[in-house]
Amino acid sequence: MAVATVVESKEWYLAAYAPENVPNSDHLKLRTVNVSLQHDSIPDQHVVLQVLLISVDPYLRSMITGRVGDLYMPPHPLNKVMTEFGMGRVIRSKSSDFSESDIVIYPFCPVAEYCVIPSNFLRKIDSTADIALPNYMSALGVPGFTAWVAIEVIGDPKPGSNVFISAAAGGVGMFAGQFAKLKGCRVVGSTGSDEKVQLLKDEFGFDEAFNYRKETDFNAALTKYFPNGIDLYLDNVGGEMLEAVLNHVNKGARIPISGMMSQYNTIPSERKGVKNLLNLVGKEVKMEGFLCGSFLDRFGEFLQQMETYLKEDKIKSKHEINQGIESFLDSFVSLFSSSNHGKVIVQVAT
Ligand code: NAP
Q: From the CA of 261, how far away is ligand 1's center (Å)?
């Protein structure tokens, strides 16, 4: 049987910047390209990857506003294939470190079916370990690590601390809440549907949760759910929720800011201002924006802890797995609609 020398690959590329509103098919488009599998065409220290899983993350939004210095990632070049945290199977290798059929993780994985990539940032995973592959995109990937940095490193709550988490049923939120519960805290989450409120309480062990789309007076909601004030708030949404939290913080509270989902689709001049920052002073609150990538020196420690928690079933993971590369745009858009349950992942191949 003849060995294939070229393979067709569908890939998502950036056709136009989306300065505001939820991006759509005018901005992100699918095209088909040929990927050569011929040994001579693969550069040294490169591999050809068949992409299996793609993590769908809000940070992509910050790469497609077209504004330099806005949000927290530089603009993605037009016409170039999008990249994401992903996992794939090596199908050709010109690197002595990787062999065909190795399963690897690549933080800058093209959103494509196949790709030729340098081997220096690849991390091999033990696919025989008793860990389902999607966990490497969630619990053991960016969301889990971000949650760990927020709670274990920056937040460092004590047993009995009152912890609030927004976007609590998403990738980062679900793990953050469970980390805080493991530390003996009282944990409350906000999310965008009643179904997800139930999920937080029944599956992830949150003490309380509320639907911010129904309980729209955030000050009233926080008065109700935090009669003793808030000691730690993991901010995933910014805007009005952050402002409301600042009215309920206790002395010495900590606010790790992971991101601001409520502001990503808005141009800078129309974003919600937070008018009560003065509350930080009297209450001596520490508010800190962070990028998980700046804590990579602690990734090994995190992995060890998280793998143990997963094996012992102390931390649960929920994935929303959408099938096929075609589903990438809808998957991305779902991050802005409250329709996703847990970590959104695209399964490109098995
Ligand atoms: P996710 O929570 O799985 O998905 C985003 C969630 O945000 C949605 O499910 C939705 O849930 C909520 N949301 C969407 N629009 C909203 C709005 N207008 N107001 C309030 N909530 C809204 O995503 P994720 O990957 O775990 O990311 C969560 C946050 O962490 C984001 O801000 C992201 O940028 C940030 N992040 C930061 C780092 C870092 O290193 N700093 C790394 C990873 C992620 P609801 O049902 O609750 O509305």
A: 5
**Looking at residue 18, which CATH number applies to its domain?**
3.90.180.10
Which residue's C-alpha comes closest to atom 39 of ligand 1? 291
Nearest CA to ligand 1 atom 12: 167
Question: Would you call 247 exposed, middle or buried from its count of C-beta atoms within 10 A (0-12, 13-18, 19+)?
Answer: middle
Residue 310 lies in a domain: no
**Tens of pLDDT along 150-208?**
999 999 999 999 999 999 999 999 999 999 999 999 999 999 999 999 999 999 999 99
Best of 236, 266, 296, 333 for a ligand 1 pocket test (most atoms within 8 Å of beta carbon): 236
pTM flag (> 0.90): yes
Distance between first and last Cα of the chain? 23
Same domain assignment for residues 81 and 122: yes
Question: Which amino acid, 211?
Answer: N
Residue nearest to atom 27 of ligand 1 (CA): 172
Please report, for residues 22, 44, 113, 170, the alpha-carbon distance to residue 337 in angstroms, rounded to integers and kept in the order given: 9, 43, 26, 12
Atom of ligand 1 nearest to the CA of 257: 41
Structural domain for 15, as ranges:
6-138+318-347
Specify the residue with its C-alpha closest to ligand 1, atom 31. Answer: 259
Is the CB of residue 238 below 6 angstroms from any atom belonging to ligand 1? no
Distance separating alpha carbons of residues 295 and 288, to the nearest angstrom: 14
Are residues 102 and 108 in contact, defined by beta-carbon separation less than 8 angstroms?
Answer: no
Ligand 1 binding pocket includes 339 (Cβ within 6 Å): no
| Domain shared by 69 and 177, yes or no | no
Compute the distance from residue 51 Cα to the ligand 1 centre, in Å.
24
Say what angle helices 239-246 and 218-225 make with each other, to 10 degrees: 50
Q: What is the pLDDT of residues 67-117, one digit of tens each?
A: 886 667 788 999 999 999 999 999 999 999 999 999 999 999 999 999 999
Contact by Cβ (8 Å): 34, 52: no
Question: Is the Cβ atom of 49 under 6 angstroms away from ligand 1?
Answer: no
Q: How does pLDDT run across 243-294, given as a tens digit for each residue?
A: 999 999 999 999 999 999 999 999 989 998 899 999 999 999 999 999 999 9
